[in-house]
Design a protein that fits this description.
The chain has 190 residues and is of the alpha/beta class. 26% of the residues lie in helices and 25% in strands. It has five helices and eight strands; from the N terminus they run ααβββαββαβαββ.
């Protein structure tokens, strides 16, 4: 009974990934082994291998964060695009505050660092690799991988048109991990 339930969960997750455009190749290739590469080794963060320990490709991981509101950011408030307003209507509850999500701080641009994050993770010297971007943009309050996919695609196509996209970059993926715990992984390029 437990095995059946796990199979159901895997099948449901695969159906969700299908609906969001997950790549067929990932489901057909078993990523069994992974090796974390040393900095300066000429490889991405990890090299992955198949069932027979046959090298498949490298994977480079990075994360996208909100541009902080000030230099030398120290805590979450410096990264949050939403002003914090203390709640004073109930003195019995101290330390409660609200975030005004309808009015982000002046100058806030969602994904303002995306182009730079991508640019700094494009490598000519790596063997064939995938770039995986963790979407930790605080200014986004709902699932928005379709918007992120479009932005990444436009950046990469612009670079490809100018001949500035490494030939060894094979795929780009994005994922998020929203507060309610359901991770979403989506192939965003090509």
């Amino acid at each position: 009974m437990v095995v059946r339930r796990i199979e159901d969960l895997v099948r449901d997750a695969a159906a969700e990934n299908d609906a969001m455009g997950a790549d067929e190749y990932v489901r057909q290739s078993a990523l069994v082994w992974a090796c974390q590469c040393e900095r300066g080794s000429g490889h991405a963060d990890f090299s992955v291998y198949g069932e027979n320990r046959r090298y498949l490709w490298d994977i480079e991981f990075t994360a996208l964060f909100t541009t902080p509101a000030k230099k030398n950011a120290e805590d979450y408030e410096d990264y949050s695009p939403y002003p914090v307003t203390p709640v004073s209507w109930n003195v019995a509850v101290s330390g409660v505050s609200l975030r005004d999500v309808d009015h982000p701080r002046t100058g806030f641009r969602p994904y303002g660092r995306l182009e730079r994050v991508i640019e700094t993770h494009l490598r000519d010297r790596y063997p064939p690799y995938w770039l995986v971007i963790y979407d930790n943009e605080h200014g986004v309050t709902d699932l928005n991988l379709a918007e992120l996919k479009q932005r990444i695609y436009e950046i990469l196509e612009k670079r490809a048109g100018g001949g500035r996209l490494p030939a060894n970059l094979k795929q780009v993926w994005a994922f998020d991990w929203p507060n309610y715990g359901k991770t979403t992984l989506m192939r965003v390029w090509p």
